[in-house]
Specification:
The radius of gyration is 17 Å and the shape is globular. The strands form two sheets. A seven-stranded parallel sheet has the order 1-2-3-4-5-6-7, with helices on one face. The relative contact order is 0.16. The chain is an alpha/beta fold. 31% of the residues lie in helices and 18% in strands. The chain is built from seven helices and nine strands, in the order βαβαβαβαβαβαβαββ.
């Protein structure tokens, strides 16, 4: 079966999207999806710049939930809608994230690293004065610390997100180059009962592979990982479920028979 659940979607409740929620829903229905999970951005302590004013990436969960419930009821006979969040993980925000999660009844939480030690890896300053490999390694080391210290998430999102923005992107990037640190991350996720996300969003940016790359997905499976969700990271309607055929191919090649959807923070396995 094709993958019919998109579990990483942003609307105008995220600071980097202007797309109305209903527009996303109608697109998903038109594409034959059975499930859509909205995962609006919430990144506490995101650096303030002219382009990113204070609070840009902090989601007003009350307003978001109110609109979500309206459309969940309106389209209940056409598609299953789930209430999720993409939570920016960093050590300095642990207590804020705990309180935020406690206050909101999310179906699904993606833990993501949009910052590395307080710096946005999409900014060129992150790479100044050092090699691309050194920058990527610092990013992965920060993820390992997040997984060790944070538990307010269900899967880790776009694990190698940093390669979208490196000077050479993923040209010379490989799992093998960072295997020592990546294996520690994957093993710890499995030990803590956390899953991994396959994120197709990088491919529309010219990446050669999904996030994370196929070799990481294969290693996760070999280490005993079973919980894996699939998301487009769509911020506009046309990107919903983009490259899902590639995600299905990767999952099958890596030995997965199922992918996962979360309801009330509980994994539901769906057959490929």
């Amino acid at each position: 079966m094709p993958i019919l659940s998109d579990c990483h979607i942003h609307t105008m409740h995220s600071g980097d999207s202007k797309t109305p929620m209903e527009e996303m829903i109608l697109q998903g229905i038109s594409q034959g999806l059975t499930t859509m999970c909205f995962t609006e951005h919430n990144d506490f302590q995101f650096p303030i710049t002219d382009l990113d004013p204070k609070g840009k990436f902090e989601c007003n969960a009350e307003l978001y939930f109110k609109e979500f419930c309206e459309y969940k009821n309106k389209y209940s006979d056409k598609i299953q809608l789930l209430f999720g969040i993409e939570l920016g993980l960093q050590l300095s925000a642990i207590n804020q994230n705990k309180l935020y999660v406690r206050k909101n009844d999310f179906d699904f939480i993606i833990g993501s690293s949009h910052l590395c030690n307080g710096i946005d890896p999409s900014c060129s300053d992150f790479y100044k004065g050092r090699s691309e490999e050194e920058a990527y390694r610092e990013y992965f080391e920060s993820i390992l610390e997040n997984v060790k210290s944070c538990s307010e998430f269900d899967v880790y999102g776009h694990l190698d997100y940093v390669v979208r923005y490196g000077p050479n992107a993923d040209e010379s990037y490989s799992y093998a180059k960072y295997q020592d640190i990546l294996d520690k991350i994957l093993s710890l996720l499995i030990t803590k009962g956390k899953g991994l996300e396959i994120n197709t969003g990088g491919m529309k940016r010219g990446m050669r592979d999904l996030h994370p790359c196929k070799d990481i997905v294969k290693r996760y499976k070999k280490l005993g990982g079973e919980i894996i969700t699939v998301g487009s990271d769509a911020h506009i309607a046309n990107d919903i479920a983009a490259y899902f055929s590639r995600a299905e191919e990767v999952l099958s090649d890596c030995g997965f028979k199922y992918y996962t959807v979360f309801e009330r923070r509980t994994p539901i396995f769906k057959k490929l």
